[in-house]
Design goal:
Strands 1-2 form a two-stranded antiparallel ribbon. The termini are far apart. By secondary structure, the protein is mainly alpha-helical. The chain has one domain: Up-down Bundle (Four Helix Bundle (Hemerythrin (Met), subunit A)), CATH 1.20.120. Helix 1 (11-28) packs parallel to helix 6 (131-158), helix 3 runs parallel beside helix 5 (94-112) and helix 3 (49-68) packs antiparallel against helix 6 (131-158). It contains six helices and two strands; from the N terminus they run αααααββα.
């Protein structure tokens, strides 16, 4: 059986799979870490492993709940800037941030479930976007932050 006999997955299925892989990968960077390791700052910015998961949670809420869903950041109770989304509060733990991430992912899945990739969404501050564009933007950000998290985890475990 040649490769031409294997059915190709459709674009939506593949985009979903890539996003889910990145969501799992960034959560996995916290596996077996202490709270201190997860929140340890190893770079001059506010970036930490736990802060990265908090940021990608915020980022996905912005794209799927604000841009696709049309609910403003203020109404969603989200910080306004990406930089602020990395900052940890005293209440943030690996368990609480992971739970918030999983909830945001479930909400995102529901928000886009019945929309085609060519659907035009209008909640973005700079104008309409297609759902395909949102998918690609989220995937780009998730992949970038997975790389950051891999490096930070390597540094944390080397200490």
């Amino acid at each position: 059986m040649g490769s031409s006999d294997v059915p190709l997955e459709n674009e939506r299925t593949q985009l979903d799979a890539f996003i889910e892989d990145c969501r799992s990968a960034i959560e996995a960077t916290l596996d077996s870490l202490t709270e201190e390791q997860a929140s340890r700052r190893l770079v001059p910015s506010a970036t930490t492993l736990l802060g990265l998961l908090k940021h990608v949670t915020w980022m996905q809420r912005v794209w799927f709940e604000e841009c696709v869903g049309g609910t403003s950041r203020r109404e969603l109770g989200l910080v306004q800037s990406p930089d602020d989304s990395f900052r940890l509060s005293d209440d943030d733990t690996v368990a609480s941030v992971t739970a918030a991430h999983r909830e945001a992912c479930a909400t995102a899945r529901t928000a886009i479930a019945d929309l085609p990739l060519d659907a035009v969404v209008t909640g973005h501050r700079t104008g309409p976007r297609t759902l395909r564009w949102v998918y690609l933007q989220v995937l780009r950000e998730l992949a970038q932050h997975c790389g950051h998290a891999d490096i930070l985890r390597e540094q944390v475990l080397a200490d």
